Amino acid sequence: MTFRTLIVDLGERSYPIHIGDRVLDRADLLAPHLEGRRAVVVTNATLAPLYADRLERTLAAAGATAGRIVIPDGEAHKAWPTLDAVFGGLLGMRADRKSVIVALGGGVVGDLAGFAAASYQRGIDFVQVPTTLLAQVDSSVGGKTGINHPLGKNMIGAFHQPLAVLADTGTLASLPDREYRSGLAEVVKYGAIHDADFFAWLEDNLDALLAREEAALVHAIHRSCEVKAEIVALDERESGPRALLNFGHTFGHAIETVQGYGKWLHGEAVAAGMAMAARFSVRLGLLEPAEADRLEGFLLRAKLPAQPPRMEPGAWLDAMGRDKKNESGRITLILLDALGRARIEKAAPVGELEAFLATA
Amino acid sequence: MTFRTLIVDLGERSYPIHIGDRVLDRADLLAPHLEGRRAVVVTNATLAPLYADRLERTLAAAGATAGRIVIPDGEAHKAWPTLDAVFGGLLGMRADRKSVIVALGGGVVGDLAGFAAASYQRGIDFVQVPTTLLAQVDSSVGGKTGINHPLGKNMIGAFHQPLAVLADTGTLASLPDREYRSGLAEVVKYGAIHDADFFAWLEDNLDALLAREEAALVHAIHRSCEVKAEIVALDERESGPRALLNFGHTFGHAIETVQGYGKWLHGEAVAAGMAMAARFSVRLGLLEPAEADRLEGFLLRAKLPAQPPRMEPGAWLDAMGRDKKNESGRITLILLDALGRARIEKAAPVGELEAFLATA
């Protein structure tokens, strides 16, 4: 029962991420934050029977009184009606401003429960207990919370930092294979945009990761969070370098939007989006073709898609034009100069992009 | 066309409040914030025909491209369906993260449009153009935004500071008498909790204020915002002294909740709530009876209610127990030691309170 701790340094909003098997049983990690407070576990119907009782025992041992709100499972529920049900639950149990939300689940639960915390009574504290690889390496750092709107993904939300994150690698054992691999797409993203050595380490250790070996997982999650934290610390409100984290996401969000939420997993869409961004980087003469091939090779070994579905160029551009990172109608893309080095292109050449999309 | 400017000092979130007749025509006040940006006016169906064209001309002169979203008038619409319509409008016009919301209206518009700004794409800028006395002296300072939930008022929201506030006293001319007087309740609150001289000035100048005389209005609004800003600057996130601003509001919110939103105007409920808090202060031996009488006398001269409606003690306590400022089930009240000096009572004596409410 060893674990590693990473401190996300955001001044007075700094917080620890504890990574390892069974960290969700460690009352000592939560007591400093929760002792004497009411802790409301927000989780989904799939995870509640697996982990909620264990977590509530930990909360009790940490000196908190626990409550529980269970939401339906699935991206379709990352929406107002579910958020409204969470607010209703909090009000029904008289949660006050000193209450703490404990988000137990993947990205949907973390984003929705985090936004509930950001906006309930104009903001209460929350703790993240991410139970998917994607959530552990992505939602753990950055404070992004929110819900979808019928007209766009993640269009309503807030930046709200947790008190602490418990990334229990043991919870990944119950993750379906497809979801687990989808999380690996975000892991390899950190290598691709920021750390060539980490990318090479991932290539060398992919088999151990696919076997969900504890030591490899702890390293991969720790380094992913570290890279993300470095970038986020430079740019908490996402006006500059943080955009690098969207590598693969502009194309990926377009895939999710056009295909309909849920058909492609987020990580699968990002995987295809990263491969596209790499190929577009090659087309613009920024990236060596061999580097794009290496990225695609990794994705294929991880059984992740490197090709997008068939979509009309007009549908691509329409969906990409609605991305939050765009300013004044231009399309921002994250491109690669090399594996381990990305750049922000604030006004992607639209003609080139259309030609590229026509053959994508 | 003179005006006064007050800077609300919140470090990097500092912003100016410009107070005076026709400040909404002053493009020079907005250009530094809005030049080259898209400005989306959010207003209601009553105010749009009165001021929206004028404001949009000012925005255009300030170098912004203007859009408009009109919501229905009334507190009943300070709720999710209206907020959702604003999000839909923003997405429909492809508002991006550099877009700015310009909230033109009273408290409902300001709170709702401010929360739309706080949460659209996880936060965009906004400008307040409050058109009621209440909004000019209350919503202008403090950054509180939000909507109501069926189970409680202002239960969903965010702290989000505007870029600037234009408090145009000329817009008060069109305000119905009852709403105008309701705003005076918040004005006298600042005197009662923090500034005995201002309280006395208000007693001396009530006739000029009731006649909506420009000079008296500018002074009253300026000093009200100044008092609020002083208190908010000490305590932006409402963990300490900011609670003083809730003088009259715990009782007042209970009146609004039990009577149903909209039957009593907010300022009317606050007026009765202040009179109750003063009488309860007398009952606890904190305040001289003559001081409570002076406050009641002012309210009555301003034709504001000093008595609550008939309500069961159980209904009072139930509604007061749901107030956001409460911690761990205790009831927090703001009480007076004297006119101009308030205190925060974090655990009001419940037995005394029940006895008081039984005769209220």
Give a verbal description of the structure:
2 copies of one chain form a homodimer. Chain A is α/β, with parallel strands linked by helices. The first copy, chain A, has 2 domains: 4-173, Rossmann fold (3-Layer(aba) Sandwich); 177-358, Dehydroquinate synthase-like - alpha domain (Dehydroquinate synthase-like, alpha domain). Chain A has helices at 27-34, 48-61, 80-92, 107-119, 133-139, 177-194, 196-210, 214-233, 249-259, 266-283, 289-301, 313-321, 350-358; strands at residues 4-8, 15-20, 38-44, 65-71, 100-105, 125-130, 144-149, 152-159, 164-168, 333-338, 341-345. In chain A, the strands form 3 sheets. A 7-stranded mixed β-sheet of chain A has the order 1-2-9-6-5-3-4, sandwiched between helices. Chain A has a two-stranded antiparallel ribbon with strand order 7-8. Chain A has a two-stranded antiparallel sheet with strand order 10-11. In chain A, helix 4 (107-119) links the parallel strand 5 (100-105) and strand 6 (125-130). In chain A, helix 7 runs antiparallel to helix 8. The longest helix of chain A has 20 residues, at 214-233. Chain A is globular, with a radius of gyration of 20 Å.
Helices and strands in order, then pairings?
The structure is a homodimer of 360-residue chains.
Chain A: E1 4-8, E2 15-20, H1 27-34, E3 38-44, H2 48-61, E4 65-71, H3 80-92, E5 100-105, H4 107-119, E6 125-130, H5 133-139, E7 144-149, E8 152-159, E9 164-168, H6 177-194, H7 196-210, H8 214-233, H9 249-259, H10 266-283, H11 289-301, H12 313-321, E10 333-338, E11 341-345, H13 350-358
Parallel strand pairs in A: 2-9, 3-4, 3-5, 5-6, 6-9
Antiparallel strand pairs in A: 1-2, 7-8, 10-11
Helix pairs in contact in A: 1-2, 3-4, 5-6, 5-8, 6-7, 6-8, 6-10, 7-8, 9-10, 9-12, 10-11, 12-13
